[in-house]
Amino acid sequence: MKIRLDGTRPEITYSMFRLREIFTVTSVSRAYPNRHRPRQYHIYVSIVPRETDHSR
Q1: Which of 17, 21, 23, 44 could bond 29 through an S-S bridge, CB–CB 3.0 to 4.6 Å?
Q2: Which among 51, 47, 50, 53 is positioned nearest to 4, based on CA atoms?
Q3: One pLDDT digit (tens) per residue for the chain, 56 residues
């Protein structure tokens, strides 16, 4: 799944931290500046569901 994250650098950093707690992140784009919102950026993140341990 590909997700676009928009926000300030701290917001994007926090969002990436939270995504990595739940999903396996397979790729992250560079930060692109938002044209109409100063000091805000967007990145593209590819994720896959985490493998679960079904032996329990």
Answers
A1: 44
A2: 47
A3: 999 999 999 999 999 999 999 999 999 999 999 999 899 999 999 999 988 765 55
Spatial separation of the C-alpha atoms in residues 33 and 45, rounded to whole Å: 16
DSSP for 1-56 reads -EEEEEE-HHHHHHHHHHHHHHEEEEEEPPPEEPSSSTT-EEEEEEEEEPP--TT-
Q: Which two tokens stand for residue 34?
A: 């938002």
HSE-up of 48 (CA within 13 Å, CB side)? 5
